[in-house]
Design a protein that fits this description.
Shape: rod-shaped
Helix content: 40-55%
Number of strands: 9
Distance between the termini: 46 Å
Strand order of the largest sheet: 2-1-5-4-3
Length: about 350
């Protein structure tokens, strides 16, 4: 014979199932919207970080460009533009002209401040047959690493634009190059700034370790990054070769172009930075819900104990009546409904007892 489930257990089980289902639906809805909110917040934070970096990089490149333009207003460069001097090393006054332009750099506030602010390494002036070291901050460069002919070829298409040369395999430094032309004398010189990676390290110092940031040019070459192995590499090729999960479903990425130079700032992070805290919170939620369910079951068992005792009392007294014991009585209960049933039962057995007594008399 199968054992039947008591009414009390049915009520408790059904209540637990309904509450668990309600908590499950509520928890799923909450964490779904919580996850979307965290993703939206992550994008907002990345956008804010990228905008801050864009502003700083734009300002840095703008300051470098303006500092070269300010040199053109110096006495030495004005004499060169007027055709009164030349940077031809074969001329007797070449060393005098070198000294003059170097002194102009030292006393040019914007030029000096740009080097100091961004920690630039060295500045060069490259003419057709000469290379002049204008200014040095920190470890000097012995050479600009470019010949006059190479620089001339770079500026054939855009003569007025500044050129940024990407890092090489043997060096992580970047070269900012600006051309100056004397059309009357058909003469050209180039200003070259050597930019260290430390120039923009402060931009990345506030980023958390789970964020990867890169600055890439139009050829997808990484100029700056908080991952040193990416510098000088082709951005997307590096990601594919090193199995970096981007772009993919489990990453969040944001990219924006820099206005003052043909660069993009790229920022991406793994969704684990979002899902891991959510998973911990979810486990805590499940643990709390489990404790609450256990507490509910204990409270339910305790709450139904009066009804259980009533049912047992009722069954016991009905068995007494079946055994012709009409003197049996049910006890008084605090619950009004149960007490009403108990009084009715007691009144019924009392009437049975009186009726039997009259019949046998």
């Amino acid at each position: 014979m199968k054992r039947r489930i008591s009414m009390r257990n049915k009520i408790i089980s059904l209540s637990v199932i309904l509450i668990s289902l309600a908590l499950l639906i509520q928890g799923g809805w909450f964490f779904y919207h919580y996850y979307n909110a965290q993703v939206s917040l992550a994008y907002d934070n990345m956008e804010a970080s990228v905008e801050q970096m864009r502003f700083s990089i734009n300002k840095a490149f703008s300051d470098m460009n303006n500092s070269t333009l300010s040199l053109l207003t110096s006495p030495t460069m004005q004499n060169w533009l007027a055709g009164r001097i030349s940077f031809d090393r074969n001329l007797p006054e070449f060393q005098e002209n070198v000294y003059s332009i170097q002194e102009d750099c030292k006393h040019n506030y914007l030029f000096d401040n740009t080097f100091y602010s961004y920690g630039l390494s060295t500045a060069f002036l490259v003419a057709q047959n000469s290379e002049i070291q204008l200014y040095t901050y920190g470890a000097p460069y012995n050479s600009s690493a470019f010949t006059f002919e190479e620089l001339k070829a770079m500026f054939q298409k855009e003569s007025d634009a500044a050129v940024f040369m990407p890092p090489k395999q043997n060096s992580k430094d970047i070269f900012f190059i600006k051309q100056a032309q004397n059309y009357s004398q058909n003469d050209t010189v180039f200003f070259i700034f050597v930019i260290n990676q430390s120039c923009f390290q402060e931009l990345f110092s506030g980023l958390t370790s789970d964020l990867t940031v890169t600055v890439t040019d139009q050829n997808d070459i990484v100029f700056f990054s908080n991952v040193s192995s990416m510098i000088g590499e082709e951005y997307h090729s590096y990601l594919e070769e090193n199995r970096t999960p981007y772009p993919a479903k489990d990453t969040l990425g944001y990219s924006k172009q820099i206005t003052s130079a043909p660069f993009h700032v790229n920022l991406f992070t793994s969704t684990k930075s979002i899902t891991t805290p959510i998973a911990v919170t979810l486990l805590q939620y499940v643990a709390i819900m489990a404790v609450l369910l256990v507490a509910f079951i204990l409270i339910a068992v305790w709450s139904f104990s009066n009804y259980t005792y009533f049912i047992k009392d009722m069954v016991s007294n009905l068995n007494e009546v079946r055994n012709q014991n009409y003197r049996t009585r049910m006890k008084i209960y605090r619950e009004t409904d149960l007490n009403r049933i108990s009084l009715t039962f007691n009144k019924m057995t009392g009437e049975f007892e009186e009726l039997i007594a009259k019949v046998y008399k």
